[in-house]
TrEMBL record:
Family assignment from sequence similarity: Belongs to the autotransporter-2 (AT-2) (TC 1.B.40) family.
Domain of life: Bacteria
Pfam families named among the record's database cross-references: YadA_anchor, YadA_head, YadA_stalk
Coiled-coil residue windows: none
Residue ranges annotated for the Trimeric autotransporter adhesin YadA-like stalk domain, each copy included: 190-226
Gene3D superfamilies noted in UniProt: GSPII I/J protein-like, Serralysin-like metalloprotease, C-terminal
Listed InterPro entries: Adhesin_Head_dom, Coiled_stalk_dom, Pilin-like, Serralysin-like_metalloprot_C, YadA_C
Main localization category: membrane
The keyword Endoplasmic reticulum appears for this protein: no
Protein's name in the database: YadA-like C-terminal domain protein
Taxonomic lineage: Bacteria, Pseudomonadati, Pseudomonadota, Betaproteobacteria, Neisseriales
Stretches assigned to the Trimeric autotransporter adhesin YadA-like head domain: 9-35, 37-59, 65-90, 126-147
GO cellular component: cell outer membrane; cell surface
Record domain Trimeric autotransporter adhesin YadA-like C-terminal membrane anchor: where: 264-323
Length: 323
């Protein structure tokens, strides 16, 4: 059925309504001046609307749905590929399974999603949600007004232990998909109301960071306390040892004084036994000595034994030739 000046309905059960409207395939429907429904079961409604894909739908002035089951709704909206959807003035989805919703929203690669005026999904399976949000890497997600997701998969995270990018290869350290962005180089956002993460790949909230800080401070305090206790013990032990060493040194000095106080034989054939004691800085020592001069008066033989009040004993002997 064709209604309108120069309208054409050439397909079986097709309908063309409006000046120069064209319904060119089976069950095609074209409503509006210059509208065209050129494929099986396609629908074009609006001034110069065009539905060129099988079961495609184009609604609004100059809307175009060119892919299989593509949907274009809005003035100059364009849905080019199979199952692509463009909703909004001048929105465009030019990729397989793409969804662009919002004034001038754009999808350029398969599986992309752009929701919001000016939002754009430029790579496969990327998603841009928000006014002028842009997803520029495969599988990336941009959330919020003016957000930009431009970090690709495969980026290694920072390892605080080394101060550099991690050399680990697991998904907890190296991303397997594009990044999720809630801002851009010029703009940043806080992510609020985040529950504490559990798994290695979960997000961490401030409460967990504070808990780690408290635990670290507690551990450091305990380590410092233990360190100070060990130092104090070492100092005490060193002092005790030094005190003992000092006492022994004083006793040794007293014993040396005692040895120096021993008498000896001087006349030929004379023998002598001597006992002496000494005191140094409150510590005492003692000595016993024996000496003998030969009958010729040429040889002097001496021997001594010493002891200290704080323990320890010793002795000495000498032979002296006289002339």
């Amino acid at each position: 059925m064709a209604v309108g000046l120069m309208s054409q309905a050439t397909g079986l059960r097709s309908i063309a309504v409006g000046e120069s409207a064209k319904a060119g395939d089976i069950d095609a429907v074209a409503f509006g001046r210059g509208s065209e429904a050129n494929a099986l079961s396609s629908t074009a409604v609006g001034d110069r609307a065009k539905a060129n894909g099988t079961q495609a739908v184009a609604l609004a002035s100059a809307a175009e749905a060119n892919g299989y089951q593509a949907v274009a709704v809005g003035t100059r909206a364009v849905a080019e590929e199979t199952n692509s959807v463009a909703l909004g003035v001048e929105s465009s989805s030019t990729a397989l399974n793409g969804l662009a919703a919002g004034t001038r929203a754009r999808v350029r690669k398969s599986g992309g999603t752009a929701l919001g005026a000016g939002a754009a999904a430029f790579e496969e399976k990327s998603a841009a949600l928000g006014y002028k949000a842009e997803a520029r890497q495969q599988n990336s997600v941009a959330l919020g007004t003016d957000s930009v997701a431009d970090t690709a998969a495969g980026v290694a995270g920072h390892d605080f232990a080394t101060g550099a990018a991690s050399t680990e290869t697991g998904k907890a350290w190296v991303s397997t998909l594009g990044a999720v962005s809630v801002g851009s180089e010029q703009n940043s956002r806080q992510i609020t109301n985040v529950a504490a993460g559990k798994e290695d790949t979960d997000a961490v909230n401030v409460a967990q960071v504070k808990s780690l800080a408290r635990q670290t401070q507690s551990s450091l305090a305990a380590a410092e306390s233990n360190h100070q206790t060990q130092i104090a013990a070492l100092r005490n032990e060193a002092k005790v040892r030094m005190d003992k060493l000092e006492e022994r040194a004083d006793s040794g000095s007293a014993a040396a004084i005692a040895v120096g106080s021993l008498g000896q034989a001087y006349q030929p054939g004379q023998g002598a036994v001597s006992v002496a004691s000494g005191i140094w800085r409150g510590k005492s020592g003692y000595a016993v000595g024996i000496s003998k001069v030969s009958a010729s008066g040429k040889w002097l033989v001496k021997g001594s034994a010493v002891g200290a009040a704080k323990g320890g004993a010793g002795g000495g002997a000498s032979v002296t030739y006289l002339w």
